[in-house]
Design brief:
Layout lengths: L15 H30 L5 H19 L3 H12 L1 H21 L4 H28 L7 H32 L1 H21 L17 H10 L8 H18 L1 H4 L1 H23 L9 H27 L5 H7 L5 E4 L2 E4 L8 H23 L6 H27 L10 H25 L5 H25 L3 H10 L3 H24 L16
Helix pairs in contact: 1-2, 1-5, 1-6, 1-7, 2-5, 2-17, 3-4, 3-5, 3-17, 4-5, 4-7, 5-17, 6-7, 6-14, 6-16, 8-11, 9-11, 12-15, 12-16, 12-17, 12-19, 14-16, 15-16, 15-19, 16-17
Main location: membrane
Protein name: Oligopeptide:H+ symporter
Keywords: Membrane, Peptide transport, Protein transport, Transmembrane, Transmembrane helix, Transport
Length: about 525
């Protein structure tokens, strides 16, 4: 029997394999360099930094890079939605990406050259990240939209396929062959990713950039903020102005904070206070703009609240490549014997557990867990999955904190103890991140697909900002004094702090999810190629 296209069960687009293969190779390149970045900084590039400060500086560089990589999606989203379209933007920014990998391989002992390579990778990887996932969604319409969830899961599975082998092999290459080879191979994989993407160019559905819109989000927001009503003030405008002032202060502080942190903080303040202010006065835009445009802005503001509540998850998740590696460096690593093959796990290789578990958990959830929940009368909606995922990330950090307390007490701990928190954090990732890709696309108005996906990745930037803020705060003598009163080490206290942060957020997220009304913003028909 032919698939029922009227119910969204039409055939899978034939161009999808090109995009998924591109993503697998690109993710190998990104995670290949990302997962050896902290060990390389500590062991090689930052040797001029005093030993007691080197780990902290390496974590600072790592999270600043991640902030940059998840900040530039806003640029990619703008270029795709307003100027060049997704295909051309992905292709061109990917070339910067390849050049960045080349810089890492060439400038292994040159601080400025290496950091310039990180900048190019942040520009390329960040710029294309939301566009590739949005480009996947563009290949679907109402006739086959139900296939999109399966493809997004396959898309995420292939991301982790590339990440798994990168996490397993790159630490060995760094140890045995040096940084030029270890950073050069991810560059070759990124070049392969660009080639694969280019080969599918005649098969893609290319949704053209949106033309200038007099009823765009920014114009509706401007109208709402500036509109006057007799006898009423403009409290929303006041809130937005506070955000502007805060953004200016953040930019001025860039000299001491660093440009990336200052610029990202400024943008977050503009979005947060501007969004709140717009929401306070949005009804004033009616009559000046169509009701559909006003309701579209309201929908975007509601989506941004969801994204904001996901930021604590990312503050926990991304530290597996910094804080968890630092902890693993102080743990014992037993020699394992599997079918006669003996090996000793390197601390950075523990990250291979994450993509391996993702590849196992995605089919397990779809084939076993979710059908079981439905049989019990519990529908695992996107927001329910994300709520559970945030809570599980908090549980993972409770375990990692317990491990740290045991080590601080003098108990030798095997690196294998990290298996449990990795399992919890990975289930959290599958429920939050894989779900979030589909959620972001389905809820975004048609003219803002790329930009909304960029806001989704901006949540990662804010999550890493939380990390830098917390790390900076523990350098304060007053804060250190209070931590000392708890009887915990600074690192253990931070671990339990992040755990509590996530658990509290999961509660707030769950309460907001009860009020959120889902919408369906897939295309009604095929877009022109």
């Amino acid at each position: 029997m032919a698939p029922d296209q009227s119910q969204g069960n039409g055939p899978l687009p034939r161009q999808i394999p090109y995009i998924i293969a591109n993503e697998a190779a690109e993710r190998f390149s990104f995670y290949g360099m990302r997962n050896i970045l902290t060990p390389f900084l500590i062991s090689t590039l930052l040797l001029f930094v005093p030993l007691e400060d080197r780990t902290g500086e390496a974590k600072h560089v790592f999270h600043t890079f991640v902030i940059g990589a998840y900040f530039t999606p806003l640029l990619g989203g703008f270029l795709a939605d307003r100027l060049f379209g997704k295909y051309k933007t992905i292709l061109w920014l990917s070339l910067f990406y390849v050049a960045g990998h080349a810089c890492l391989a060439i400038f292994e002992d040159n601080l400025k050259g290496f950091y310039f390579g990180l900048f190019l990778i942040a520009l390329g990887a960040g710029g294309i990240k939301p566009l590739v996932s949005a480009f996947v969604g563009d290949q679907f319409d109402q006739t086959n939209k139900n296939r999109a969830k399966v493809v997004y899961d396959a898309f995420y599975w292939c991301i982790n396929f590339g990440s798994f082998f990168a996490s397993l092999l790159m630490p060995l290459l760094l140890k045995n062959y040096g940084p030029s080879i270890a950073f050069g191979i991810p560059g070759l994989l990124m070049a392969l990713a660009v080639l694969i993407f280019w080969l599918g160019r005649h098969k893609y559905v290319n949704v053209p950039p949106a033309p200038p819109n007099p009823d765009s989000l920014t114009r509706v927001a401007r109208t709402a903020l500036l509109a006057k009503r007799p006898g009423e003030g403009r409290p929303g405008l006041t809130v937005a102005v506070i955000g502007v002032v805060g953004a200016v202060v953040s930019l001025l502080m860039s000299y001491s904070w660093g440009f990336v942190i200052g610029a990202c903080t400024a943008l977050v303040l503009l979005l947060a206070f501007g969004g709140i202010g717009t929401g306070m006065q949005l009804e004033r835009a009616r009559g000046h703009h169509p009701d559909e445009a006003v309701e579209g802005v309201r929908a975007v503001l509601r989506i941004l609240i969801v994204f904001a509540l996901v930021t604590p998850f990312w503050s926990l998740f991304d530290q597996k490549a910094s804080t968890w590696i630092v902890q693993a460096n102080s743990m014992t690593s037993p020699v394992l014997d599997i079918f006669g093959w003996q090996f000793q796990v390197l601390p950075a290789q523990m990250q291979a557990l994450n993509p391996l578990l993702v590849m196992l958990l995605i089919p397990f959830n779809n084939l076993a867990l979710f059908p079981l929940l439905r049989a019990l009368g519990i529908e695992p909606t996107a927001l329910r999955r994300m709520t559970t995922g945030i809570a599980l990330s908090g549980a993972a950090w409770l375990v990692i904190g317990w491990i740290q307390v045991s080590m601080d007490g003098g108990t030798p701990m095997s690196i294998l103890w990290q298996l449990a928190p990795y399992a919890l954090l990975t289930m959290a990732e599958v429920l939050v991140s894989a779900t979030g890709l589909e959620f972001a696309y389905s809820q975004a108005p048609a003219s803002m697909k790329g930009s909304i996906m960029s806001f989704w990745t901006l949540a990662v930037t804010v999550g890493n900002l939380w990390v830098l803020i917390v790390n900076s705060s523990v350098k304060n003598d007053f804060v250190l004094g209070h931590i000392g009163d708890t009887g915990l080490s600074v690192i253990a206290f931070q671990m339990f702090f992040f755990a509590g942060f996530a658990l509290l957020t999961a509660l707030v997220f769950g309460l907001y999810a009860l009020r959120y009304k889902m919408v369906d913003n897939y295309r009604s028909g095929k877009a022109p190629a």
